[in-house]
Write a structure and sequence with these properties.
About 30% of the residues lie in helices and about 30% in strands. By secondary structure, it is of the alpha/beta class. The chain is globular and about 45 Å long.
Amino acid sequence: MPSDSALRIVWIYPDLLSTYGDQGNVLVLEQRAQRRGIATETVHVRSADPVPETGDIYLIGGGEDRPQILAAERLRRDGGLHRAIGRGAAMLAVCAGYQIMGSTFGGEEGQPVGGIGLLDIASSRGPARAVGEVVAEVDSALGLPTLTGFENHMGVTRLGPGARPLSRTIKGIGNGDGFEGCYAGHVVGTYLHGPALARNPALADLLLGWTVGELAPLDDTRYEQLRQERLGAALSA
């Protein structure tokens, strides 16, 4: 991100994939950047619009089967997101958006539907819906505290060699293989709602740090207290 410009946050297809409050991830990024004196500009890209290639952080949320299929079709045709990630932009993809980032995902009747291939993953329908709290220990390479969130999906996601698990599940289903989410480069995929960045502000700072470099510390005493309370509640639920 150029030092003389605002951090550009791009929220992809809120008209299709914004079922579970995932737009809160945008608000958290804005707030944590602005608290550090970093100006922000947020672009809401509706499904009829082209995806701009000049964003710094891209976000996409969860949704139902048909909107997910439409979103994948339009992103494949558009190509703007691929070009943005290719030049180094960061991304957080949640639930249906996470599945879209892979090679395939399960459609309305469980049939395979083509994704957009930004992550080396393949998703399909699992045997039962995964609903409830998730607690997961993050890959030590990322240096993040334990993640918490809420999942509500039918997906099973298999990682290829080009993707690393984001975290190992202590509680919950996640990908269905003992892990939750994945990452490759500056692209993170997860099933966590809550929204994810509100419940895990360190993950928001990871995305910001990838984009702007070293971040000034914030007084997160209250956030950490709330995180610990949620963690305890999730483990005891």
